Structure formats: C-alpha cells, structure tokens
Amino acid sequence: MGSGGTWPLACDQSLLISSARRRRRHPLGCARRRRSPFTSLRHTLGHGPQHPAMKLATPVKPPTSHSTGPGGPVTLPSKRSLNVCVFGAGPGTGNHGVAALSLSLLSGIARRVASPVITAFDNGEGIRPASAAVAGGELAYQLCGAVPTRRIYRRDSMWRIRASGWLGGLASDAIKVIREADAVLDLTSGDSFTDLYSARRFRMVALEKMIALEQHRPLILLPQTIGPFRSASARRVAQRILRSAEAVWARDRQSFATLRELLGRSFDPSRHQCGVDLAFGLEAHEPVRPLPTQIASWLSKDAGETLIGFNVSGLLFNNSAAAASQYGLRADYPQAVTQFLQRILRETDANILLVPHVFGEPGHKEHDPDACAAVAMAIRGRHDHRVAVIPDGYDPCETKWIVSRTDWFCGARMHATIAALSSGVPAAAIAYSPKIQGVLETCGQGAYVADLRNMATDEIVDRLWHSWSDREDAGATLRERLPSVRRQVESQMDEIVARCTAPPCRPTRGHVPEGPARAMNFVRELSQRVTPLRRSINVLRDMNDRWIDRRWNVRTTACRGSLAHGSAGTSPRHDDAVHYEPIRYSVLLKYLRPLEPTARDVVFDIGSGLGRALHAFSRLGVGRCIGIELRADLAEIARENARRLRRRKCPIETRTADAATADYRGGTIYLFFNPFGAATLKAVLAGIEETLDADPRHIKIAYFKLRHENVLHECDWLRLVDRKSSLFHRIAATYWVHEV
After folding, report:
1. How far, in Å, CA of 214 to CA of 336, rounded?
2. Which CATH superfamily is domain 293-469 in?
3. pTM of the full predicted structure?
4. Residues 314 and 364 sit within 8 Å (Cβ to Cβ)
C-alpha cells in the first residue's frame, strides 16, 4: 500500500508511518541496507518457506466496530492477518512480571486484529502450540525455543540460531519463523536492556535483537526501561540496536532521557517515544482455584477490615549480602521489611497479605515464596492470625485481582507494584535500581519510592510508613492520573499494531535466471555466507591445536609466525621446497586412521617440520618414528619436542637431510604433507623403491593435498587403495600400498 492509500485504522492519522520512515535499517545503523543473499535467493527461486497460520482455539469474537479494553472502547482496525514474533516475554518463566507483559501484549493484539499469528520465543524446545485466555476468548499462538546458552550444539541455542541465519536459515525453524514475520516485537522482560544484572545477560538480550535485525525484520522495542549501561562496549551495542530499530518506546521519562542521550543526532521523535508499561493494560480475573479461607474472607467486599498487600523480593531477601554487593545497596532490605511490618502489626489493626511474584525452584535465590515464608515466620508471633501468604498456583491476571482487593500495597518487584497502581490501589515501592522511580512518577506516586541505594534502613521504614499514612491522598492522586495512563496504553497499542500491519518491504521476485545461471547465483550467494563461518571455525581449530600442544607438552603451533614464513631452505638437488605449515590436529588424527599403524611399523614423515605427525604416531605405539627435515632450525625444535612429549611409546628421530638423498631403509609407512614439488617427490619415491629391491616388504604411503598426485600414478609399483576428502576441512588425501 502506498503512502497515499487508505488505512482501515480508526486512529489518528499522525500515527501512520510515512514511506520515508518505513525504510528498514542495517544492523549497524546505516540508513540503507544490503538485501540478504538468501532472502533474495528464496524469492528468485520462488520457494520460500511458508509459515503455518495459527488460528484461534476458541476464537476471540471478531469485532465489527468497537471492543472494550481496560481503558474503555478500542476501535479495531484491519481484517488483515498479522504475523509477529515476540522476544523477551516468554509466558512460562515463573516470573509473573514477564508473564504479565506477555498476556497484556497478546490481549492488545487480539482486541485489534482478527486471527493473528503470534510466535513467542521462550526457553523451551522447538515449536509448540499454546493458548491464553485474553480479550474474552481463548487465543491460540505458538512458542518457539530460543535458549540463551553457549552450547551451540543445541538446536535451540540462540548462537546457533544466529549462525543459521547467516546460512539462510539452514535447519532452523526459528529463523524461518522470524523471516516470515511482519515485525519482531521485543520486551526484554521490561527491564533487562541494561548491563546492570550482568554482562552475559546483556549479551543475550542484545543477541535477540541482532538476530531480528540481521534477518532484516522490523524490530520494535516495546515500552521498557533503557539503561543504565556501565561499560562502554554495552553502551555501543545499545546505541547500534536503538538506531537500527523501526520504533522504540521507553516506559518512563528517565528511560526516555537515556534514550535521547544514547541516540544523539539519530533521535527521531516519530520513531522514539515515551510510553507506559504494557502491564497497565493487564486484565484482572477472579481466581478459578479457591483461595484459602482466611485470605478469601479478607478479600471479600463486606470484610470491613484493612488489608495491606506486601511483595517480598527473593532477589533481595534470600541472599541479601550478594544483592547489596551487586546493586550497591546502603540499607539492609530484610531488616527494613521486618521492621516495617512489625510496626504495622503493633500500631494498626490491618491484616498483612504477603504476595510472591517470582517463582523458581525452592531454595533458588529469586524464589519469592521462600522470602515470604521467612518474613511471615519473623513477624507473626502473637499476630499469627493477621499474616498470610498467597500460595502458588495463581496466574498474573488472578494475582492482579487479588492485589486489587487490598487497601494499600508495597512492592519490590516492578510488576507487582504496577498490578496495584493499575487497579487504583495506592502503592509504595522499594527500589534497588532507577527503573521503578519513573514508573511510579507516571501515576503521581514518585514520592513514595524507598531507594535502598541511598537511604538507610530506618529511612526506608519511615518512607514506607509515610506512604501508608498518606494512602488516602495518594489514592486520590492515583484515581486522577489513572484514566490518562490507560488511554496512553491503548493509543500506544494502536500505533504498535499500525506499525506491524504496515506493508513490509519484502524483496521483489524480479527476473528468474535459468539453468546454469541459477546454479551459479546459488553458489555465489552461498559462499558469501559461508566465508564468515569459515573464519570462525578456523579460530576454533587454532584453539584446539594450542590445547593439544599444551596437553602433549610440545610446541608446534607457534611456528605459524616467524618460523613458518622464514627461509624454507633449498634442496641441493631440486629447488622446489615449500615453506612449513603444520597440518591441523583435527585433520591429522582423522586422516591417519586408514593407515592402521601397528607396533611393527616404522613411520617416515618426509618434511616433518616440528614433528606433529611423529608425535601422533608415537602416542599410538608404533615401532619407530623418523622425520626428514631440510631446515636445521625446525629439526632442532622437533628434537626438543620429542624429548618433552608426554606418553611417548616409541623412539622419535629427526634427521636434518635433503629428502631427495635421504635414507629410507626399513620404513613401512611414509607420509607426504606436500613438502616439496614434483621433482623432489620423484626422487624420494625412487629412493623408497630402491630400498624395496634390497628389502622386499609391505609399505603404505599417504599423500596429502594432491598437488602432484600424477607422480604417484606414474609409479607402477604402487597401487591406489583409498581416497579421502572433506569439504569441511578443504583437504584431500590418497593412500597407496606396495605389496610383496
């Protein structure tokens, strides 16, 4: 649809994206991008992967005019199906805050688009069906595994997914799903786009975004906290991602200021905006599973008793010393929580309902129920009947319904506090980072933040008591601000859907080449993707060579520097020697197996260099190993390596000699790793043949790289028995025998 078309969205036309703003940006921030070779290849050949459209299990009623959301009537636009991927909001993490973001997003899309196709990436395996009760119906979507692990052999490893993207989506369902999406929506768990938690966690959340950008999908960063960034490298990565994203929403004014500062001249008010947290739009559902009798009586409307909801963070409580060190806390969080709640029990008649919001395995440092149980044990005493803990098993919508029944709430978890604020419950927050201050200021509650980083324990208790005492005024302010916040939630959701449903900039099919031209295009585009991968593999092979050298206590890899490129020496008979380059261990150990060495074999390595092949044979337990090396400097190092070699099972001798005139008597296995040209190779083979006349025996020859293989074919006394090659190693070898 062109910029002059008519959009079926009943929203402000200023929200629509102009053709200039619809340009997709290169991951490195360039305004123009180069089309992915594999994307163009799929369209050229006309057989791109088709993503199966997911349907509603119990269809959300397709609206004809309006639907009602938390903020009032919402106009529903287009009947066009929407296909989006969602990162950073996996529904099954055990974190009610992340799940609340996921459900809010699903609900917002379901109320605006009929039969959307949604793929949420999580820590599971493969693609699985899922459903959620949102917008008055059951929305079916799918989950796709993208695990933040360095185990690249796992099919769902995010590093493997990224590498598969470089290879055109080879053997990766995740890449196929991303490439077929209209847009990639990223929530980053609401607050994880920072290196505050750890450098590794930041690398993983940045990796999700880079995968989307490298596949040239519009990346939309939904309302979230941006920063802070402590390291310069994390800051540079964040700037690159923010500049390349199609649109970015910060969820509070502090984050918006950080966004503007990071972007500098690249800041675009039409793409970079200040919004509000999506969890303000989370629906509240009365629990299906019955609550404990005591808690149910407190929550009933006719209870007549004051009820305090209090969220205890396992992150700050279960290992308070580690949390204080990591986040630079001044106050003692466990002590502040227990002192405040004990004061509530002493000086008021309010009941206390402890609300866990993050669930893991019992004993895990972030498991909120453990922290709640410890607090309950510490404060109960003779007030046992006034303290209760919400049991596990209630989803975020049900937890929000429970929180909405309280008279005042205090939370250390961001989205537990948002559940109260969005329900009109006055709330205070205990902060360990800057993220929560801006969210509370959105609702006029910024004065009720107790910051553990710059306040003492007594000051934390006093700040919470002030919020509790001032709850009537705070509630009035909240009720005044909340309608505008809800309207902002709906308007930003309208724009998010509008951006997703904008016609994607897909490559056109163009001319389809025929016959050999099509094959050549495929090979050319494949090589462009394989070359970076080869460089990475070579780095890993170098690391493997060094590791084996250390394990065997030898030095054969250092020669890639000055020794490798020094004078190779000149044969007195033939001027065709080549510079020394050790064969990689991964190739050596694989290609020597067909020789089947035994304890009776005598191995000659002609052009032995630093003796890497001799070391391998010696550890296998052959009878004797002899190396022929022209260069005296390499031969001397090889002799030292032979003395130091661990687990050597036979003698190793390195002779400094011209290969063309060396003595090859007694040998049964001869190795040639392309050490010289055809002239010297003929002379060496002639010398070996002379020893067979005097001492007839069975011998084996392995010739690598095959540059002068024709010389061996000319020897009628040799018979070719095997040939090995590997595209992965880019090397080949032939195996020859002489039988008596």
Report:
1. 47
2. Glycogen Phosphorylase B; (3.40.50.2000)
3. 0.61
4. yes
